[in-house]
Amino acid sequence: MTDTAAGGLRGQRSPEFRRNQWTFGIGTLGRDAIYTLVSFYQVVFLTEVLDLPDATMWWVSAVLLGVRIVDAFLDPVVGAFVDSTRTRWGQFKPWMLVGGVASAVMTVLLFTDTGLRGGQLVGVYGLFMLLWGITWSAHDISYWGMLPALSVNPVERERMAAVAKTFASVGQFAAVAGVPVAASAVAGVDGGDAASWRFVAIVIVTIALVRERKDIDLEGERTGIRELLRALFRNDQLLWAAAAYLLFMLGYGTTGSFGFYYFKYVYGDEAVFPVFALFVGLGQIAGLATFPFVRRRWSRGQIYTWSTLAILVTYVVFYFAPLNLVVLGALAFTLFFLASFIMLLMLVFQADTIEYGQWKLGRRNNAVTFALQPFINKTSAAMNTWIVSATIILAGINDADTAADVTDRGVTMVKTSMLLIPAVLVVLGYLVWRAKFRIDEALHAQIVRELEPELRHRPQD
């Protein structure tokens, strides 16, 4: 597809675009560090730092699963509020500010030892998690809701998404590798203590200026409940894209969530986990940096197909691989290199369904559409947390002190949950996409051409 397709809306390379490309991308650095802290280390904090017994962990994991799913279903409602917002500061920025500050406070509370145990801890922690989820959604939905409001050009979107995901990966894997090391260093003991984890959480949230285009009208519609349901359930391509992404994230997220436990209780040396995480981070960043070059040669469908096949092979090899850091690091690099392609494709697929929905339903819903991204992330993270929690309890890891305390059966359970189940989920996501998703490059170009009169900025009164 040429840059000039769809009449002059698609090929603009203005200074504003270049500025937005970098400011939008850099903003994901601290955001994803916070999200990673919660999604990757929440269970670690509960089991390794607070040392909760199995009975409490079963209740905590069940409550967290329920709370995060309820919270996920509230995300489209938050998206409707964002789409209906009109202020002097714009549509998205007020929500980004309020949601960012509030979710930062709740993040610190999630990594604070309140001194409660048993049922009181379960109740309070569940409340903290619910408030974190809602405030994070306000920030996250408004942030990603800006992406389709910055350009309708698929090439520009891919470039913006690639830069954003690259910085997000830097923040994500800085947290994956750095959090346990920092907590241990602050406390001066292996694993750290509750106070050191709270300190690390405070540092991360303190780390955590995009201008919307004005030449075309890309604001979302004011959205009530009826319009919300219509925007979601009558946009069939949005639902199929979301289903494929959810299955992929269930697999991808589960693999990542097991990393700490795999190296402590299967590999036998948790100290090398940050080194392994470096391979993971480099793989994902390299994949995002490579994507624009790969995209010039192959279509989105070809990239998705070959990446899925290669990921499946990598999972199987990983399962049978020897416990050698170099071998495991190379496999992790390959796995996350390929996964970055799919993550980026899913983001662009979701953005394209906004024009599809406007074309099909006559309404543009930026934030409502992108509310499905945190919905998917939260739902998959809830299931990831539950799978990890159930596995470490059933495998005997929660009661173990070292790898020597884990049976062969327990090791097999961890490897199966970490590698084989995710492989199946990733393939299922691909099959859903291949069977049901219809918006390819040609159809999106046609839709934008037909929508061009509507997309042109309306004169101000």
UniProtKB/TrEMBL annotation:
GO cellular component: plasma membrane
GO molecular function: symporter activity
Location of this chain's protein in the cell: Cell membrane
Gene3D superfamilies membership: MFS general substrate transporter like domains
Entries under InterPro entries matching the protein: MFS_2, MFS_trans_sf, Na/Gal_symport, Na/Gal_symport_CS
Transmembrane segments: 22-45, 57-82, 94-112, 124-146, 167-189, 195-212, 238-263, 275-294, 303-321, 327-349, 370-397, 417-433
Main location: membrane
Record-given protein name: Sugar transporter
